Amino acid sequence: MSLQSHPLGWLSFLHGGSMRVVIFANGEFRHHEEARERVRLSDCVIAADGGTRHALAIGVTPNVVIGDLDSLSQTARERLQAAGAQMITHPAAKDETDLELALLHAVGQGASEIDVLAALGGRLDQMLANVMLLTLPQLAGIRVRLVEGPQSAFLIRGGGAWMTIDGEAGDTVSLVPLAGDAAGVSTQGLQWPLDGETLYLGRARGVSNVLQALPARVRLRAGLLLCVTLRQGAS
């Protein structure tokens, strides 16, 4: 059965509610069923250019397609136009990637939560750039996750409140410092707890911890920390 994205995602924002956005990037896309289940009828769906084919492959019609649109076939264009999708075209010679444009557009529309699919795997340079997009200052205060099947990643910023780590007992949790040392890292619910400690850039101390009890949480005093989770039994 085809899943048509629904404009209620926009309406909930206009009426003062939260707005959840799902963005389809143009990376590897292997976990189709899990992606289909992640998209809700009330979501606003944005496709970053080539990510359109991933959305259409699982029966999801994007509300917005953004980028230089060089990856869209004529058939896809006609299908999107018939469905009333908004097409936002940027020049091919630009400073931003299509995913960056999609994230900034979501922020501009008032997104309170963003899930990004198909941003991991494939070219190493693009994958690293996609991860680093989480550090955009415009995303501060918004729950943004990169999700690919059993893996997800989100950014924790220094000076903030406790951040919940979603998952179940036995899941792998890695905490990786970005842009320098992560100071004052504290955790709850992990097998090897941290209490106001420093995770140093370039060191692997925070990799492969284990979620032991819910709720599991993490916070830090200063720096940027990437939290990566992997469901138990996945590889």
Question: Could you provide a short overview of the structure?
Answer:
This protein is an alpha/beta fold. It has helices at 8-14, 32-38, 51-57, 74-83, 98-108, 124-132; strands spanning 3-4, 20-24, 44-48, 60-61, 64-67, 86-89, 113-117, 143-148, 151-157, 163-165, 172-188, 197-199, 209-210, 216-219, 222-230.
Plain-language structure description:
It contains six helices and 15 strands. By secondary structure, the protein is an alpha/beta fold. The chain folds into two domains: 1-149, Rossmann fold (3-Layer(aba) Sandwich); 150-235, Sandwich (Jelly Rolls), CATH 2.60.120. Strands 2, 3, 5, 6, 7, 8, 9, 10, 11, 12, 13, 14 and 15 form a 13-stranded mixed sheet that branches. Strands 1-4 form a two-stranded parallel sheet. The two termini are 29 Å apart. Mean pLDDT is 88; it is low at 1-16.
What would the average pLDDT be, to the nearest integer? 88
Report the sheet-strand fraction: 25-35%
CATH superfamily of the largest domain: Thiamin pyrophosphokinase, catalytic domain
Could you name the CATH class of the largest domain?
Alpha Beta
Number of separate helices? 6
- Structural shape: elongated
Spans of at least 5 consecutive residues with low confidence: 1-16
How are helices and strands ordered from N to C?
EHEHEHEEHEHEHEEEEEEEE
